[in-house]
Specification:
It comes from Prolixibacter bellariivorans. The protein has 86 residues and is mostly helical. It has one domain. 87% of the residues lie in helices and 0% in strands.
Amino acid sequence: MVNTILTISVVLILLSILLSLYRFIKGPNTADRVIAFDVMTIASIGLIGLIAYFDNRIVYLDVAVVYGLLSFIGVIVVAKFLEKSL
């Protein structure tokens, strides 16, 4: 039962990545693209966590944490650049 729910969540995460990719490509302005990129990053972190569960490898969680920190810093830098305060 748990594996079925987690498999469904993998499908939903991949669907959210695809929808965010569409917004990233089609986004009318830069802010939409930054938000879409952030959503794809968060979904990827969730996907890495699910892969860590399925493979029973805890090292993937370290990768997810580092990826999350780098994404956070990147979004902050882009936001500062868009505000023209960088």
